[in-house]
What does this fold into?
Amino acid sequence: MTMMEEMGQRAKEASQVVAQLTTKQKNDALLKMATALRAGQATILAANEADLASAKEMPAKFVDRLRLTPQRIDDMATGLETVANLDDPVAKIDRGWVNYAGLEIIQRRVPLGVVGIIFEARPNVTADATALTLKSGNAVILRGGKEAARSNQAIVACLQAALTESGLPKDAVQLVEDQSHVVATEMMHLTGYIDVLIPRGGKGLIARVLETATVPVIETGAGNCHIYIDQSADLAVAAPIVVNAKVQRPSVCNAAEKLLVNQAVAEEQLPSLVAALREHGVEVRGDERARAIVSDLVPATDADWDTEYNDLIMAVKVVDDLDEAIQWINQHSTHHSEAIITKDMERGRAFQQRVDSACVYVNASTRFTDGSEFGFGAEIGISTQKLHARGPMGLAQLTTIKYQITGDGQIRQ
Amino acid sequence: MTMMEEMGQRAKEASQVVAQLTTKQKNDALLKMATALRAGQATILAANEADLASAKEMPAKFVDRLRLTPQRIDDMATGLETVANLDDPVAKIDRGWVNYAGLEIIQRRVPLGVVGIIFEARPNVTADATALTLKSGNAVILRGGKEAARSNQAIVACLQAALTESGLPKDAVQLVEDQSHVVATEMMHLTGYIDVLIPRGGKGLIARVLETATVPVIETGAGNCHIYIDQSADLAVAAPIVVNAKVQRPSVCNAAEKLLVNQAVAEEQLPSLVAALREHGVEVRGDERARAIVSDLVPATDADWDTEYNDLIMAVKVVDDLDEAIQWINQHSTHHSEAIITKDMERGRAFQQRVDSACVYVNASTRFTDGSEFGFGAEIGISTQKLHARGPMGLAQLTTIKYQITGDGQIRQ
It folds into this structure.
């Protein structure tokens, strides 16, 4: 057995225990974990200091993601407490019926088993992912970026101590400490041990996992969100939504990156939309038709239309009609979130029906695509694939179903 | 663009049309397909004769799967008519709510998009898979075994003619005619075009697809089903179930392959169970403890416990208790279907809770794991993985969800 297989075996054994816990047992463990994180603050900060010292050469954005503070540690603890308060999806009955032979068939929610998470610089993922996987009755194998190795180890030590104190198997939460690519690849090939692998991080990481993994993967977090301004759009509705979707938090996947404007209202509305964006420091790029209206837009290139900027940049394209907008979006989006601004109900409904994305909005900001905003309480990521989970993934999306069938001697004819 | 990418592009375009069809449009096309198959009987049989002529050297079982008869063609047509009569899962609303900001959030069932099916000798998969994918609003790309190439072409020609006659895009159903491994690999890597790939066939095919594919795969059809005879089992219930699960159709994945008997009743019940199986021509193999009770059992080797025989063979093991049975099953099963025979409600429930398989039975034959038996009307396969679909996959499992969110200008704070 390789080291990863041994880890997988321990996770599998722990998952069988965790799957059978009561909600109270899981909640108690989550609360103990929160206490342990707060109590371990000094140790965690010291480990984080060591990580930060080695990461001095990295870009400021990266260092910011890596950095822990007393506040950020408290936020992690609060996150664990929040998840303790969420509804437990496990053992719920989705539906049940009796078949022609008199068999009682119950479709029941059960944990997935072992969840693998591969992530990058943010050490808080360690606590967040643990909270969601444990509450949904799963064991988790975490592999963080090597720059956060010491921080992650310190956090996992707190979480495991809380598990032990709760009388639960500490292998319900394991951290891959070997940072080599060979071991990462072994993890992605851990068929029979890992039931689902969720990469959390940039495009490069997600692409590598999709390419390499032979265990089932859920693709999350790639965004190239569009807003389409219909010919009946009210500028007073459109402008705040466009600005909010672009600037409220430009680094995240549900931020809008592209603006499509119907040619009938482009002359009237585009100058105001561009001015509103520029007021917030956005660089606006445009296709030829957009530049014919606002001449000083930065020319957009072909590459722009498929780029997730994660920055204060937005590209504008003038389109002939709803059909062109929908076709364009279905070709260029990452199927995450798109919005139409319209007063016309028929076109709003057509847009929602025909745009092939996880979340399709009428007259609202794409920034609402989020587990908390949806009311799920928390999320492990936003799925942009169609299998198993689509859109914000909460606790329910970390479960699967099982059929429990009860008879009194039925045989098949 | 490669040939497969072009095919994928055509499928994607067709899928966008098919996704928007009304139930009546889809049903009309399915009925026209049934008519076309019956009208094309002579052509299909001639194509099948040519395939059979080339397959003379193959094993009899293989040739039987490949062979079409007027009856089998009529069965395919009836299958299309049956699916036309099933409930359409598309556009159904799973749930809807209003969030804190006043956004109306609707979770709606939508088609997956493009489904890929890779299968082996049975040409009837062509019609069956088309029926289910079309009714659920998807386009399908089919790749059958090379031995059935001419039969599949003849069937697809009928299905496409019916699509054209219905005014629908014929690319909603496409057959990969190039039988090379290179093209099969291209199909498994068709990210952005194929939303899910479902292999239908033997273990080798499924393993190869899981190993090679970078598009999402649903693993189906691997069975190594167990029946556990509890210490409180009633032999009058146990014997008919064991015999039914083993012999009613031994070649399929929901047939029982292994029998675990509690040591407390082994001496009393095992001789009768073995005798009942032998009456139906079953070769019974046993571990040491089983052979100590029935001395002339064929000795079971380690390999037996992980083997799906698909034949009139069953291996018996005597276990100490329920715990050993559950642990054994969780280690050796393919997580398909398992059954306990018991009069004890507590142990029955524990078995259903702790056995980690798609379908867990109390006092009934594992042969019921089937879309029709469950009441789904039809099935595309039985999923043995935990993501997206588990157990029999009907029409609903060929859909995903989309969130349609409607506001009146909401922005995120």
